[in-house]
Design brief:
Length: 526
Amino acid sequence: MNSQENYKQKYLKYKNKYIELKNKINQNMRGGECMDASGNPQLPTEDYSDPIQLSNLLDLTPNQRITINRTCYNIDDIYQWVIIQNNNTDPKRIQISQADIIRIRNAYDSLHPNHQQLQVLAAVERDGRALQYPYFELSNVRRIALTDVISDGLLLRYVTPELKNDREIVLAAISQNGLALQYASGELKNDREIVLVAVRKTCYALEFASEELRNDREIVLAAVRQNGPALRYASERLRNDREIVLAAVERYGYALEFASEELRNDREIVLAAVRQDGLALRYASPELKDDREIVLAAVRKAGLCFASPTLQNDREIVLAAVERYGSALACASEELKNDREIVWAAVRQNGQALVYASEELKNDREIVLAVVRKIGYYLRYASDELRNDREIVLAAVERYSSALEYASEELKNDREIVLAAVRQDSKDLRYASPELKDDREIVLAAVRQDGNALEYASEKLKNDREIVLAAVRQDGLALEYASEELKNDLEIVLAAVRQNAYALPYASGELRYYPEVRALTRELFY
């Protein structure tokens, strides 16, 4: 059996002893008659009231029995119960402060100096972070620490400095979580075997290795092969090591950021990086940002924005970029933003690319119509001329009713377009022209779908009995937007309150206290 298993077995044996004692204490705390060694009733010297006072406990001796409210308890059990439960208030018998618990603990230490192992187990069982407190002696904690770091390596943070320098404990911790290396002693952060185990478990553990080991080729290679970003923690010398940097960027292209200036100009390395992540082109040398093959590989992975201005004006490269990522049009040259084929390819992939097109192509009817038929919202990026194109605007609001907001003032006054919008979302009545907010058919269509659309109706229609009645029947709270005259209409107020009792405050002061309204309110609320 290896040492870790040996410690684990000892821990489990001791834990079982602790559980046995805890069960015994819980049983004894139920109380009973005081008996002597022969099992005969024994009269206690004193009987204490409930709750028992700390001063009473400190004067007692081991194995002495006391009574609390004429129920018998063993003082050992009471001490242990307080220590193990570690409550500020004993819900059964003893009410004491945290400071008093410490005094009881110290008193019990003097009576039973060997009880601390049970105490350690009790605390650690509740929370492994209890290992941080200096109250626990090293001799008692080592086995607990070893067991705990095997299950959670980061608990190494809470052990004593001596145990942070214990090779076996640190090795157990980093085997569970490589990042536990950060809590090891300086000496062990310079231990080659330990650091190698840590970085193989978690590449980012390299950050916590000693400066000497961050310059160790085998260790750094092991880290970057697990995950490329670990290159950032390598020494300057190893960031210029071709094999190490190549291994890093093949796993994580963006690791090119941490390579030396020399290797950022290495064609093979940069090509490997951009093939893994096109955005890694950002860290290539200016010379390689102008390399056609490299940029072509990068744009297939979204890297056009980091290409040289020359290649951002290369038709083949930009076309390849926007076919994969339409929004890459933002990084094309002004000349190519005016290239119809390129813009077509971009908006087909992502309609939002229209925002990056030239003003001329934002005025291209065919392109804009294709975009708004997919996503009506993008009408906002069309030219003023096309926002006044009836077919385009109608297509946009049929896909996205709120696109009415971006239509020309003339088309916001187009009855068919506005009706198409409010039938989808009645609140888009807000974007209609004043004339159409006064159109009875349009407003009635809106409030039947959502009563609160009454808010956007003309003042005249807010005083239209049929429209307001339709609105409050759909949502009683729409009464808020009715005219003052109709807020005093009994039928309308009753309809509103019947639909939603919380509409009552919007009724006129007179009708709030009207018998029929009050009766309906009581019925709804009670």
